[in-house]
Design brief:
Shape: globular
Number of helices: 11
Number of strands: 8
Strand order of the largest sheet: 1-8-7-4-5-6
Structural class: alpha/beta
Order of helices and strands: HEEHHHEHEHEHEHHHEHE
Strand content: 5-15%
Helix content: 40-55%
Low-confidence stretches: 41-53, 55-66, 69-78, 88-102
Distance between the termini: 51 Å
Length: 309
């Protein structure tokens, strides 16, 4: 466990050293369903394979009618014949595709629960309603804004509303910061449905949120080598303000984005050799725990957004 935590943090830091961007996706239930279900290629019957093969051969067998030379057959008739065969070919596979759920089976052979099927197809299914929440915490070049904007233009996500959350730099200038952010998004040509500036990020977190953090440290201790979390009391004390900030951010996420379809947030990056890998990963765990599909993004400080002038 400790080795994996250190390895992940090393990869993150090396990626930034190489001027690469980082994206971390976390979805409820994870992405590995190999121990839960069997996939289509394992459950397809030989007859279905034969059927597909015969469909593919049907086009190749279409040629010039017998006893007629090529010059006797008009180009239009060939095009019509080929087009008709291709339509039948596509229609046959479309019918098969509509039955693809049949080819997902649980390990015990029963039907896959609807909840698991939803998790499997979360990025392929059409979202008729929903919200994509963007938590733009730091200026990383704009990638945290660009990615959800691109996702929102896709057919499966186009019906979702795009909401933007940002942190207030000065509490006394809340209104001016909101107008400034709105103007910036307009220049970037980012269409959004709502903009919210968070003014109270430095408020102390609730005791219940602190308990969640302590529980994660205890879990890390149980799974660690020799019962060691890798996080010292001195580090916890020196990083208390940072920890409280992340815990408060979790409370804001639960308050505003618990029921969203997708959450995209700027990935916090700690100072190297100041924050241990174990504490950093615990911060990320607390932020994304029990949340909708969550995408953490960190750009490489290269601007990916252009002003509209």
């Amino acid at each position: 466990m400790k080795l994996m935590v250190n390895l992940k943090c090393l990869l993150y830091s090396k990626a930034l050293d190489m001027h690469l961007s980082i994206c971390i996706l976390r979805v409820p239930g994870g992405l590995d369903f190999s121990k839960t279900i069997t996939f289509g290629d394992e459950t397809l019957s030989p007859s279905s394979n034969q059927s597909d093969l015969s469909k593919s051969k049907s086009i190749s067998n279409l040629s010039i009618p017998r006893n007629q030379s090529y010059t006797k057959v008009s180009h239009e008739s060939i095009d019509d014949l080929t087009s008709s065969a291709e339509n039948k070919f596509k229609l046959g596979f479309a019918k098969d595709a509509s039955k693809e759920n049949i080819f997902y089976k649980s390990i015990d052979g029963t039907d896959v629960p609807a909840e698991i099927m939803t998790n499997i197809k979360i990025f392929q299914m059409k979202h008729k309603i929903g919200q994509i929440d963007v938590w733009w915490l730091y200026d990383d070049g704009g990638l945290t804004l660009l990615l959800p904007y691109i996702i929102n233009t896709r057919r499966t996500w186009s019906s979702c509303k795009l909401r933007v959350f940002a942190l207030a730099n000065k509490k006394n200038e809340f209104d001016s910061e909101q107008r400034s952010m709105a103007g910036l998004l307009s220049k970037f040509r980012i269409d959004y449905s709502d903009l919210k500036i968070i003014p109270d990020i430095n408020r102390k977190p609730l005791e219940s949120t602190k308990v969640i953090f302590e529980n994660e440290l205890q879990r890390l201790k149980r799974e660690g080598d020799g019962g060691d979390t890798g996080v010292t009391e001195i580090e916890l004390l020196s990083m208390k303000d940072k920890t409280n900030r992340h815990l408060r951010l979790r409370e804001l996420l639960l308050e505003n984005s618990k029921s969203s379809t997708l959450v995209v947030m700027t990935l916090p990056m700690p100072r190297r050799n100041v924050v241990s890998a174990e504490l950093y990963m615990t911060w990320l765990e607390v932020l994304t725990k029990d949340m909708p599909p969550f995408l953490l993004v960190r750009g490489n400080q290269t601007s990916v957004l252009t002003f509209y002038s």
